[in-house]
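Lab notes, practical 5.
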Amino acid sequence: MSEFWRDRSVFVTGATGFLGGWLIHDLLERGANVTALVRRNRADSQFFLSGLDQRTEIITGDACDRKLLEHTFKQRKIDTVFHTAMAGGGVQATLAEPIDCLRSTVESTWHLLDIIRRDHRECVMLVSSSDKAYGAQATPYFEAQPLMPQHPQEVAKASQDLLTQSFGKIYDLNVAVTRCGNFFGPYDFNFTRIIPYMAKCCALTEQPELRSNGKFVRDFLAVEEAARAHLMLAEQLSYRPELRGEVFNFSYEVQMSVMEVVNDILEIAQSSQKPAITNTVTHEIPSMSLCCDKARGVLSWAPQRSFEDRLGATVNWYLQWFRAKSLTMLSFMWVTVPESAETLVILSSI
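Output from the prediction step:
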């Protein structure tokens, strides 16, 4: 796979997002020339924290800006696109700003598809949809079943999903769709998500609160596995025309309640911080899980490491991250606070 990506010109939208950052990391490791679309600078993203911005060509702007997209394709001679950009910080945040989510997700997708259709038909593009596109229906979800979205975020994802399938099948383009389980892994600082939130609470010995009743069921996928799955599919799409317009589920195919995940994290972190149940969340799908038979059979895909292994590594990463930040803050205080006996007592008690 590394030789396939070497010197390829790759365009990643949503570069400061969670999946976008890991895709750029892996592409650079494989020798690709990456152009990153950045809507706004996020200092807390992997893209900036790990120096990926120093190794890529940065385009600042909106994925809905067609002229900007056309200029980027022309100037950079783009071979492959990973479209991961989407407005909104999660299910609850999207409820407050539904139009921004719909516009950003859907309009950006149709512009990219039409640019490829008109002028760059050899280009490969993967559109990152979501398991939320299926909506609330019987699980596990299969790629062939109808989408039943209701929430604005679900509708946005289903819309870009169907657009991509249409352009792939009708116009015979090298485009496909991924629907993944809930991502988790290092550098996810969206603490509305249960795994980084609980890891943070354990690291800082904070009392956690669950927005749900703890009984919601979710399927998961480590972001490192997701990035690898996207690269694998994009590579095969470049020489397998039968994959055009196809959809693939990717997940561990685990069905775990929120409380089961919480208890696993507490055990890994050796924490006694039992969560308070607030049960205030609204408009969430009660149960979500994916069937990945198609990805296994058609792409020969399988996760490289287990859910348990990745979860343990992720929790330990957060523990080390917050420990390092605490030490950095402590060093800063030693340097900047005037020396006094009182100061030393305060510092020794932190």
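Observations recorded by the TA: DSSP finds 13 helices and 13 strands in the chain. Residues 322 and 328 are 10 Å apart (CA to CA).
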